[in-house]
Design goal:
The chain is an alpha+beta fold. The protein is 28% helix and 33% strand.
Length: 107
């Protein structure tokens, strides 16, 4: 009986640990916009869908104009102020999101 209860306790403890660790995690290929943390912006999304989910960025920068068959590169910057200040930069190649970078402003 004791062996069974010990195994059950360990199984439940492991399950709780895994559930808690993954509950708030987000893939490195996604970002929760500051205007609505219930939606997810993920790699591969077109600019229009990102605009719908995240709103207008604080800054849009054309990094490279597409030439010789290469797509243009655009970087959008979103800024969160207040508690946990953060900057998110979203890089687009042509119309598709290809890179998401997050930077904390205060350690």
């Amino acid at each position: 009986m004791r062996r069974w209860s010990t195994r059950l306790f360990l199984a439940v403890t492991l399950w709780v640990y895994i559930a808690a660790a993954s509950a708030g995690s987000v893939s490195p290929n996604s970002w929760r916009p500051y205007v609505n943390d219930r939606v997810l912006v993920t790699l591969g999304m077109p600019k229009g869908e990102v605009l719908l989910k995240a709103g207008e960025p604080a800054n849009k920068e054309l990094v490279s104009l597409g030439t010789d068959g290469h797509s243009s590169i655009t970087v959008w910057t979103y800024i969160r102020t207040g508690y946990n200040e953060e900057v998110a930069t979203l890089t687009f190649s042509g119309n598709r999101l290809v890179k998401i970078e997050l930077y904390l402003l205060k350690p």
